[in-house]
Structure formats: structure tokens, C-alpha cells
Amino acid sequence: MDETASSVARARSTDDRPRLVLSALTFALVVLLGSVLAYVGFRAARFFVSDQTSLSAFFGSQTWNPLADGGLWPTTVGTAMVAVLSLAMALPLSLLVAIYLSELAKPTTRRWLKPTIETLAAIPSVVFGFMVISYFGPALEALVPGAGRSSLTAALAIALMITPTLASLCDDALRSVPREVREAAFALGADHTSVLKRVLLPCARPTIVASTLLVLSRALGETVIVLLVARFVVDGVSWNPLEATPTITSNAVAATQTGTPHALDGAFALMALLAIGVWLLHLLAYRRLRGLRL
Amino acid sequence: MRSKRDRVLSAVSTVATVGMFGLLALLVVGAAARAGGVAWARLWAAAAGTTLLCAAGLVLALPLGIAAAATTTVFGLRRRRRHHIDRFLSAMASLPSIVYGLVVAQVLLVTGSSGYLAAALALGAMAAPFVYVATREALEAVSPRLREAALALGADRWQYLRQVLLPAALPGILTGTVLTVARVAGETAILLIVAFTIAPQTGDAGVPAALPLDLFAFLSQSSSWKSSAATYLLVLLAIVLALNAVAIYIRAGQRRGR
Lengths: 294, 258
What we know:
The complex is a heterodimer. Chain A is an all-alpha fold.
């Protein structure tokens, strides 16, 4: 009895020091990342209390100028439009690729196709920027003058960037549907299309929606493609996908280039907004996923 | 007997898959056709700079990310706190990378620190949540029976972590690390912010040399640079794809080992 108690005490004491070291490192990481967020909040707060800031211009103005206070609407509309357009292109394509991968591909094909698609997911965004500038931009420009560098071309590049990730996640979602469910549907005489439409896709929908939300946050935060492709900016709110548009991220780069502290404070205020948006998407996605597990 | 719409569905999804690969193959072939002579010294400097930045970023991200994952999975933090840390770190993994660049540039570069240090710190901070998520998944994939067996043999949690859990999860951790390196190597937004913050102060001399940065510079300049851009693109793509091949190889080895 005593012996067990003392050996437990000894075990406790031997792993105390490593535990402390690991906890300290974890604490350091949380503090490091937390201070990044805190700094964004600090600069955003400084923007809103500054005498140079005109809140009515920030919230009301329709023109974009990183040096002045106009900024909220042109950049948020631009950010949302690029992200939504890119998802509108990427989601159908990803679903088709996922259907091919999980339903139609032979196991031998699948064995190399799935890792290849996951490899494509790691291609850096600047590569897709190159692709769109060199190929699609000129082609679109020939069709509609001025459309070569527009939200639409930027969205196309982002769609190409996120499709492999989204396709792989949708494939995981489709394959996680229990086999009995699938086989029961086939046994009832349904053809493959109705099994997909009535059984597999509805069953996989929560996971697909959650994956889409996570991928959407990548599209919202994309900087380099927007900068390369849609940089030459209209100065107002643009709802036309065939025009260039500022986004929250490209606005931050523009503010860095102008270098004035006030412009940067404004960029941080918009960035705080974007971070909150991304965090909400994350929360929503995880709530859905957890609902699925229960 | 397949119905007509089944055939349509399979045709459409096959075309979509082939089309996606076709587009990317077009990119590589097109870039290879355009690739031309570059200033080899500059390319070499950029490749060395990217390697240095990746290494420095990993030195920061690996210990922090792995320690955080080990703490939340093995060591008994209170359940609530563990849950909060986990939530926070996985949310940070989806924060736009440019945020790290902006903050580090404003905090460090304004006080005159070196561009390499600032870029490495921002890249490391960006990579740490990725390492955390990958490591946690790898640790959780290890069978709980191993834990019970180790503890039943009288191991303490540190011995269990070091001698049982980490070796078992090592392939998964390595895969995650390699994929993170690929992300860090291709990360452009952070470097852009760092470069644009330094350039007006000290001129181009203090700007870190890195492949994605040069590639961006070529792309935003006139068309005469396009051939250099194509060469840089092939080099960057080759590095990223090679890293991924390593990751796939490790993962395949892990599956064979089981």
C-alpha cells in the first residue's frame, strides 16, 4: 500500500520538470500569437480614437484611398466579391473531382491520384498569380477590354489555388459516409446519380459545408494574387467583377507602401475586421463539425 | 446496366478531374517554354535566402508547435484550459498570413532590426500553428492502448511521451513539418510587407533575398522580365513539389510499417 503511494509520488516528481518546460513553451507560443492579435487590436483602436480619423468618412465614403479615411466599403466589397466568386468556381469543380475520386476512380488510380491532389494543394499562391497573368488575363482582355486584371481573374486564380484542398476535403467527406447507408441505397435499386444526390451528398453535407468555410477563410486572406492581378485600382466601390478592386489585404500592402502611420492604422482596423470574420467562419465550421460527431 | 445520367455524371466528373490537372500541366509546360536566362548569382542568392528563412522559421515553430501539442494531448492541463488552447491555436492556423507580416514589420523593422530576423520571426509565428495542428493529429492517431500499456509498465508521462508516443507519431509529425516547410518556402505576402517596409528606409540592400519575392518583383515589372519569372517559377515549384514528394514518401512508409 505504502509502496504504491510512494511510487506514484516518485512518478509525479520525475515528470514534473519536463512538464514545466513543455507548459512554458506552450505558454510562450500562446503569448507570442496572442500579442500579434493584441497589436492588431491596438493599432485598430488607435485608428478609431485618432483625431485624424473621420468616422463618417470611414463608414460612409464610397471612394478608396489608403491615405484618407475612405476604405471600409470598397475593400470589404472587393474582399467579399473575390472570395465569393472564387468559391462559386471552386466548389462545383471540387465536388466533381471529389465524386470522381471517391466514386469512380479505381483503387489503383486513387492510390496515386489522392496524394497528387494533396501535393497540388501546396503550390504557393504566387504561382497561380503567374499563371493567370500569363494566360487567362490576356485571353480575357481580348474578350472584354480592361477585364484582364479584374476581380474575376483574381477569383479564377484563387479558385485554382483552393480547388485541390477543397476537392480533397470533399472526398474525405464523401468517403466518411457509412458503407451500409450507401449499400442500402444501391440495394433499393437507385442509380448512382440518385444515390449521390439523395444519400451521399446530404449525408456528407455538414462536413462539406465546414470544409468550404475553412477554405473560404483562405480565399478571404489571399494577398499576392489580388495584388498581382487586380492591382490597378478603381477608386470606388465596384460591384462589377470585370473591374479591378482593392481588398482588405491589398489595401494593407498599399498602406505599407505609403508608409504613413495613420494609413497603416486604417489598414490594421480593416485587418482586425477580416480577422474577426475569419474567426467567426472558423467557429461556425467547428460547431458544424462537432454537431456531426454528436 | 448504367442509366444515361450516370454516364453523364461520370463523364463530367472525369473531365473536371482531367481538366484540373490539364490546366496545371499547361502552366508547367508554358513556363518551361518561356523560361530563359536569369542572373544566376541572384537566383542562387534567392534560393539560399529562402533556405535560410525556412530554417530559421522552423527553429522557432518546431519546438513551440510540438511542445504545445504534447502539452494539450499528454500532460494533464485542466480540460477547459486545454480546450481553449486547442481552439485558439487551430483558429490561428487560418489567420491570413499577411497579419504576421504587418505586425512584425511594424514592431521590429521600425526599431531598425534586420530584415532577415523580422521575416524569419513572422514566418515562424505563421508556421507554429500549422506544426501544432499536424503534431496534434499525429499524436491523437496513436492508439490509446499504447498509453495504457506504458503507464501500466510504470512509465511516467514524460517517459511515455519520449519513448513511446513521439517515436510512434514521428512519421506524422515529419509529414506535417515537411508540408509546413513547403508553405513557408512559398509564402510571399509576409516577405512583401517586410520588403516594402524596409525599402523606403534603407534602400533595397536590407531586403531579404528570397525566391517568392524575386518572382513577385519580376511579375509586377514589364514583360521583358517574364522569362526570368518563368525560370524562378520552375525552381520554386520544383522545391515545393520535391518537399511534398518527401512527405508522401514518409506517409507511404508509415502505412507500409503498420
